[in-house]
Structures are given as C-alpha cells and as structure tokens.
Give the backbone structure.
Amino acid sequence: MKTDSLLIRIGLAFYLLLFFTYLLGPLVLMSITAFNSPSFPQATPWEVLTFEWFRVLYNDARIINGIKNSFIVGFFTVILSVIMGLAGALMLTQIWPKMRATFYTIIIAPILIPGVVLGISTLVFWDRINVMLGLSNDSFLHNGILLTVLGQSTFIASYCMLVFVARLQRYDTGLTEAALDLGATHTQAFRKIQLPFLAPAIGSAAVLAFLASFENYNTTTFTFGKYPTLTIELAQKVRYGINPSISSLAFIIVVLTVFFALAHEVRNRRAQLAIANGAPVGAVSAGFKLPKVFAGNPAAIILALFVTVSISLIAFAQFYDPEPAKAVLLKKKRAEQQKRIDALQKRLKEKRLQKIFKGPDIFGDGSSKVPQPPSKTPFGNVFDPGNLNKVAPGKEKPAAKPASPFGNVFDPGNLNKVAPEEKGKTTKP
Amino acid sequence: MGNGLLKDFFKRNGTVMGWFLIIAVTFWVVVLIILPQISMFDFSFRNHLPPPEMGGPKDVYTLKNYKYLIFGAEGNPDAYNKTDLAVFGKTLLAAAFVTILDLVLCYPIAYYLGQSRGGGLTRVLVLFLIIPYWINEILRAFAFRIIFGDSGVINEMMMFLGLIDSPIDFIRENVALYAGLGYAYILLMIFPMYNVIESLDRNQIEAARDMGASWVKIHRRIVIPYAKPGISSGCTMVFMLSAGALAAPQILGGPSSLWFTQIIYQWFNQGGNWPQGSAFAAVLLATCIFIVLAVMRIFKVNMGDIGK
C-alpha cells in the first residue's frame, strides 16, 4: 500500500512536470529566440546574444500603429462591455423567474458562438443598415474601430456579466432596501451602496475585457477595416514571413504578464496574511515592515527577484554590443564555409584531372573504380595508367591537395573558372 | 399585465436606473446579439449582387448558397461538394479530437488542484496555468511554429540524438496544429472541472478508500459523476472554440489541410462573396448549437452550468 501511494506520487510529480513543460516551454523557447541573432526565430543552434530584434520591433511602424489601434479599441470595448455586462447581470437578478433561463441563454450565447460568426454577423448587419440608410461606402458604419468595438463587446460583455453575477450572488439586497427606507433615491442607493460593493468586480471585469479585446483575432479579422489591431498585424506577419522581432514582442508581453500576475498574487497574499494576523491591509503594507511582507510570501520574493533581473537586463542591453561576438562568429562561419568550398573544388578538380589524364579507356581498366582496391601484386599497380594522376597509394589521403606541384594551372578545365580564392569571395554575401 | 410588470420594474429601480438597465440590455441583446445573427441568416439566402443592385429586382431569396455547400458549383461532376463537406467533417472531427486530448490532459491536473489543500504550490500552479492564457493567441501559435519548424527545437533535438536523419514536417502532419489548439484551450478545460472538483467533499473519497475501492473505481464512481457539469462545460467550450478557431489553423495548419473557418474567411476576404460566406457561417453556427444542445441533453447539464 505504501509503495503504491509512493508510485502514484512519483507519477503525479512527473506528470505535473511534463504538463507544465508543455504549458510554459513554448513561451520560454519563444522568448529565447528573441535574443538569438539568426534572422529566422530559432533557439538552437545558439549563435550570438543580441538585442537588435527589440530595435527592429521598435522601428516597425505597422506594429506600433497596431498597438495604438488595439488600445483605442480596447478602451471603448472595456467601457461598453462593462456597462452592458453590469446591466445584464442586474437585469438577471430581477427578471421574471420564468424568463430568467431564456434571458441567461441569450446573454451567455455569445461566448459559445464562434468568434468568426460574430465578426461576420456584425459586418453584415451594419453593412445592411448602411445600405438601408443609403449611406456611402465610407460612412461611419464602415469604420473599422466602431465595428470592432461592437463585435468584440458582443461577447466580452458576457464575460463581464459572469464576473458581476458571481459578485452579486453575495450582495445583500437588504442594504439597498435600507437605503431606500432611509430616504435615498434609487439612483443614490445604486451609486452609494451597490456600486461600491461591485467596485472590485468592475475592476476585474475591466481587466478581463481589455485582455480579451487585446488578444481577439477571430472577430476582429472581419471587422477591422482600415484599422488593423496588433493581433491582426501579428497574424499577417506570422503568416507571411517571420523574424525574431515578433519573439521580442512576445517576450515583452510575457514579462509584463508575469509581472502583473506576480504583483496581483503578492497583493492577494498580503491581504490574506493581514486577515490571518487580524490586521487591516494598510497596517501591513505601510511603514518599514518590508521584510515582513516577504515572510511567508514566496510570490513577493519572486517578484522582487524578477524586477531586479529585468532592470539589470535592460541596463545590460544599454552597454552590451553584440558586434564583436558577431564578427567572431561570422569569421568562424566564413572560415568553415571557405573550407567546405575548397574541399568541394579540390574534389571537382581531381575528378576532372582524372578524366583528362586517362583519356579514352584503352587499357580496359575500370576507370570508374576511383577508390582503387589495395593491390595484391608486389609492384602494386604502378603501371596502371589510371594511377598516373594519383599520388602513391600510401599518400592516398592528402588527395585533396593539388596533384602536381604547379597546382592545376594548366588544367584546361580551369580556364572558365575563377581562381579558388576569388570564387570563395564571390559566394559570400 | 406587461404594463404592470414594467411599472413594478421602474418602482424597484427608479426611473433613471430603470431606463439605464432597459437601454443597455436592449442594445446588447437586440442590436448586438439577435439582429446581427438574423441579418446574417437572411443574407445567406440572397444572391451575390453588387451594392447598387441590392434591393432591386434581382435581390430575391434563394437556396443557392446552401446548395453550393452540399452539391458544389453547377456542373460539378460529383454528386456532392466533396471538398467543402470533407473540410467541414474534418474540422468537426479534429475539434472533437482536440477536446478529448484536452480532457485527458487536464483531468489529472484539475483533480490534483481541486483536491490539494490550497497551499502555496497550488497557488503558483494556478498562476502558471493562467499566464499562457494572457499571451496573445497569435503569439502562442507562433511559439508552436518555432518549436515544430524544420529547424525547430524538436527536430534539432531528435536529429542530435540520432533518432531521425532528416527533419519531420510536423506542420504538414498537423501535429503542430493539434498541439497548438490543445494548448490554447487548456485553461477553459481545467477551470470548470477544477471549480466543481474543489467543492467535492474529501470525506467521500476517504470513505470509498476505507471501504477498499480501487483508485480507478473512486474516479469512475465518485469523482467523475460529481464533476460531470464541469467536464461537459469544459468540453463544450473547448469544442466550440476549436471548431471556430481561425488563427491557429492559419498559422499552424499544413498547406493541404483547411479548417472550415478558413473557407469562410476566404469567401469574405478573397472571394468577396459575402452571402456565400454567410451561408457557411450559418451552417457552422447551427451545427455548433446542435452539438451543444445534444451534449447538454445527453449529460443532463443545464445552460446555467456553462460559464461557471
């Protein structure tokens, strides 16, 4: 029984490791490619550490424009979705019970409808309205930003609604009633009682909405018009030729994500610790109690480390110059390439020489047997005409060198060739 | 009666709040959800016309676009539109495969996270789960393209170890696509299951174990029946999202394999035949709705369980 549970435990640990490798490995590898110098994103073979892809990214006008559009779309989508999601959630709490299931199905449906369908229906619908109103083809109803915001909000509002429903389940309606009894108007009761209660949910719904909007592709790809968002630009780049500047963007996003996730975790954990210690959050976070924050809060330690590493990396990037290392690598590569070219040329020459010296195969010797079998007669086959162009059998190996002391300058086959050194140069970029 | 309800509604919310709720909800439900779907459905029955002819005598309803999906263009030598139907079927099958893959991958994790006592490790693992989900969909697909490319890490490593001589074309074999799609929706599979399993009373499992139930039996008789809403909710979402995925197939799909959404995309962006594209989209939507309803009926799950 004991060994059994041990076995399960080891298996579980192994599975967890495997699973999280699958989950995080791709992101790590992609981040690594951002720092490797080859112009095709690859982690292996590692060449030279470089930061130039970040500069390429920074100078990419289309990406920068995409980020701008994404932020505009994200901003309006957040506002629209949070408002609609909140209204939907409030409506759900007080709608006629028999209608509730239907209403819920309708407002949850956008999550389940394929994003492609949402994009298409938005595009078609507003286009029909445009035709009906007799507007021209570049009216505001064909504006990519407007259509994208509408299309995205359709389903992002459902996410927001779910967040609000979860929060509202813990709301005590007695509070609103008490406020009303005390003479507050409905609007006042909502603004002063219910809205503050919902504030954390509004915050998380807004973050969720922004992230969903920022990374949406399926819906946006039909509605963006003349305003491609970052995701659209990325998709086009990835489809039509990739270079590591995309990896560098991914790296930045990964770093930001990890940073905010850790920061969030630290805050949560601190609040938890505070509750556990019976002290309000402010008391823990205020003053010179930093070491205590770290105590029992691994996320805080990781966060601190993470920030330190990021800052030193940025500082390092300011001073680091990949050029010397690159030059060394280039030299090495060239030398290698040169060696390969030389070897190839020599081999070609050998062959050609063989052919010339041999002429027609009058002695009936199998001239095709280029690697001659070791001879058995005491004289070897020194009188074999096929041997004329060869060094002595014992020196078979350095055959890569020119056979005659003059090299093969008199080789007629060389007339149409550049000198070996020249050729090596011309093939290089 | 409706009048009374409305009066009651305003009495409960006040005029300003009442109007706010009605306008916001109506805008969302009617203008953003229902009308566009109806309009797309309507459009799918129309002829492909240049804008000036819309509303003209040629603008009549037709079944042409749906006929095209089933029987192909006129003069098609085959009885059916084999290309598009095959792609449609393949998409659904592949989406089902991805769903099952995710379910198998995620169940142990969801069980482990749900049953562990919420220590520091669990929190960190949950954080790890969420982080990939915040990375752009395109970038996730891009990462898989780097990994599975000809000179990607997997090929390089296998060649280094001497397992293979020449790189395997994972993109053409669709391995990259399945891995990428499965990866993209892991979170949507884990969380519904995790939420349900977390609420499972551990004593039930202890009791079963004390009574001598085997490990397999505990899962089959206790955990899985209890987690059924979570499992079906996760499966529904993963299936719908993979069937409707566009980015991953575009980036990771092999040259010979198309996803149904890619055909729709082509009708809109390259073919320029919107009614035809709308018809295909309507078919996709109807199929997805049908499958979701069927799954909910079979596993006796309510709509309310989805999205928890």
Remarks:
- The radius of gyration of chain B is 25 Å.
- The first helix of chain B runs from residue 2 to 13.
- DSSP finds 14 helices and no strands in chain B.
- Chain B has a mean pLDDT of 79.
